[in-house]
Amino acid sequence: MTAPVVRGSIRRRLTIIFLSAAAALSILVVLAIESVARQAVQTSQDNILFASAVSIMDSVQLRDGQVVIDLPYSSLSMLDSVTDERVFYAIYLDQDFVTGYDALPIPAGVTDVKGAYQTAGFLGETVRITAVQRVFAIRDVAQNLTVAVAQTQTNVRQTVEQVRRWAIGMGLAFFMASVGITWILVEFATRPLRRLAQSISRRGPKDLRPVAASVPREMAPLVTSLNSLMQRLQVSLKRSEEFIAEAAHRVRTPLAIVRTQADVTLHRVEKEQNRKALRDIVRAIDESSRAAGQLLDHAMVTFRADDLDRERVDLTKLVHASLEQLRPLADLRDLDLVAQTAASVWVQVDPILIQNAVHNVLDNAIKYTPLLGQIQVSVQATATQAQITVTDSGPGFPDGGKSLLTQRFQRGENARGVVGSGLGLTIVRDVMAAHNGTLEISNITQGGACVILSLPLE
């Protein structure tokens, strides 16, 4: 059987797609949480800086046309009491530096209406700066007083780092949960495919019933195509079966007529040379007829093996019937058929196939047992199996290649001069396999062959 060309896996593709989406979503969640946390911490710091700057601005007074700044303690203590951050400030009147750190940058865009914010480097550290502005009339001249307050961002970085680690942990947990969810989803999504494959794989070659199981809409075209293929195969198999039966019938009938005519002619011919030629013709006809019959039997076994017509059968009666059918052949060779059978051994089998197998085993024993020989047949039951054992006093099986004797058209070296097709044991093997049974062939110590057919009890 030709193996299909496998390219990729639907399960793997779905898994990669789902996990890739989960990984991307986890990264986006981590980045979003980090961004929100950074903005929240920054806003909190900006609010405190703004409140500190406004507190300093509120402490500004005008005395005798001069700006007097009484820097309140609370304006800066609200910044360094919460954390260990460093705090800086600067106060400008228009462009003139008044007090504080004159190198502290002033954020652009500050007006008397709104404050301004900026992150910059100062004294080797990163600081967040907030500036507010208010207009004062000094000696009837409007001047802008700008107050800038700055704070280092060590706490902001630490807080954001903690949130980042927490977000990464949450992202990993989300991804691991996604792995489990993905496995469940992929299993659920591919389950109809597996069910369909299992349903078809359990069928035999003759089980060509349409697939009637409910499937998703996307699989409906596939099932429709399968059913169409099965219908075509069913028609083809039926035609093949009819052809084999018709061919065997058309071959057997002329061969039987020719053999009869050859037998009649053989009795009329007196010259030994002509009689020898006629005997060769009869032998060739017998071999052809037997080959045609066993080919038909093999085809019948092949067609019935996957759709057995099982019945409750007494194996003892079946074996006795086969013995009585073949006893005339044994009598022609003066063979002694001895039956040692149990009272009744019941099995659930296809009686036609089992009788065919027994017939082939007995027929082989009769052909290969020399004149005045003996064939023993026994039927017995063990705890789990029913066994048919056939032994003879013939030459036995060849020492080498016993396993090959069950192959089609294979015959042993001792089969020369014996009419046969090489299909008898092949048919027996196939019948046993169809019934979950076994075929064992061996030689007995005293001389002769032993064949054991084992079938499971019902």
Strand content: 15-25%
CATH architecture of the largest domain: 2-Layer Sandwich
The residue ranges in which pLDDT falls below 50 over 5 or more consecutive positions are none
CATH class of the largest domain: Alpha Beta
Portion of residues in helices? 40-55%
- How many beta-strand runs? 14
Q: Average the pLDDT over all residues and give the rounded result.
A: 80
Distance between the termini: 33 Å
- Along the chain, the helix and strand elements come as HEEHEEEEEHHHEHEEHEEHEE
Radius of gyration: 50 Å
Number of helices: 8
CATH superfamily of the largest domain, called what?
A: Histidine kinase-like ATPase, C-terminal domain
Principal-axes shape call: rod-shaped
The total number of structural domains is 3
User: Tell me about the biggest sheet?
Assistant: 5 strands, antiparallel
Characterization of this structure:
Helix content is 51%, strand content 21%. It has a five-stranded antiparallel β-sheet with strand order 4-3-7-6-5. The chain has a five-stranded mixed β-sheet with strand order 9-11-12-14-13. The protein has helices spanning 10-58, 73-80, 154-201, 220-268, 272-305, 315-332, 351-368, 424-434, and strands at 60-63, 66-69, 87-93, 96-100, 116-122, 125-138, 141-152, 311-314, 336-341, 346-349, 374-381, 385-392, 438-443, 449-456. It is rod-shaped and about 165 Å long. It starts with 9 loop residues before the first helix and ends with a strand. The model has no long low-confidence stretch (mean pLDDT 80). The protein folds into three domains: 13-161, Beta-Lactamase (2-Layer Sandwich), CATH 3.30.450; 203-307; 309-458, Heat Shock Protein 90 (2-Layer Sandwich). The protein is built from eight helices and 14 strands. With 458 residues, the chain is of the alpha+beta class.
